[in-house]
Amino acid sequence: VACAIVELCLTRGWLRPGFKYASACSGVDGFALGIEMLGDRAGDWQYVGASEKEPKRASLLVEAWAARGLRTESVATDARDPAGCAEAQPADLWVMTPNCEPWSTRNRLASTAERAQSMRDVREMLAHARAHGPSVVVVENVETAELFPMLSEVLVSALPGYRPFTQVIDSREHGGVPHDRKRRFWVLVRV
Predict the structure, then answer these.
(1) CA dist 122 to 60, 150, 153, 177, 190, Å?
(2) Distance, CA of 70 to CA of 63 (rounded, Å)
């Protein structure tokens, strides 16, 4: 999926080969792996910043992407932290995968309060994009009828000057994995 999104961005001229990349709620960053799979098409791209609250995952993230420039000091522990945002390097492509637990159809215990908090968290995490103005912002989360309008509204209102595109992608159809995992991707392009 990441390959297809970045390829689209390169083809349309929204990104240029050798772009700078950053992510929030990074984990070990499968999106970056998709970029790497593009090979020469992505050029000599650089991984300039990330956020990961889990220390072991943050360590693995740096280990995995040090060759692309990611350093321990470039990984914030909280994507919502304004100080970390101010210190972060600007990126051309910024990817965010916020917590999906409050929205997952498998989470029968999710409360209205948890869902409202998740939208506040997303708005706070978008401070990086507002401060640094990447060319492209990609947000990924579960596909639910409840989440789509709420997250779409937060993204559009928090990122004026960006044109949103969205699509649901099922990993069974597009990733060749043997289970259904529908995710919605928002690609926001600075205009």
Answers:
(1) 24, 11, 11, 28, 18
(2) 8
Q: Is the pTM of this model over 0.70?
A: yes
Q: How far apart (Å, rounded) are the C-alpha atoms in residues 35 and 189?
A: 18
Region label for 69, one of left (φ > 0), alpha (ψ between -120 and 50) or beta (otherwise): left
Among the listed residues 124, 116, 122, 127, the one whose alpha carbon sits nearest the alpha carbon of residue 141:
122
14: left (phi over 0), alpha (psi -120 to 50) or beta: alpha
Q: pLDDT tens, position by position, for the chain (191 residues)?
A: 888 899 999 999 999 999 999 999 878 898 999 999 999 999 999 999 999 989 999 999 999 999 999 999 999 888 888 777 667 789 999 999 887 777 777 777 778 888 888 888 889 989 888 888 999 999 988 777 777 888 889 899 999 999 999 888 776 666 666 666 678 888 999 99
Quick check: 132 and 94 in contact, CB under 8 A?
Answer: yes
Radius of gyration of the chain (CA): 16
Q: How far is the C-alpha of 182 from the C-alpha of 191, rounded, in Å?
A: 28
Tokens of 109: 């215990």
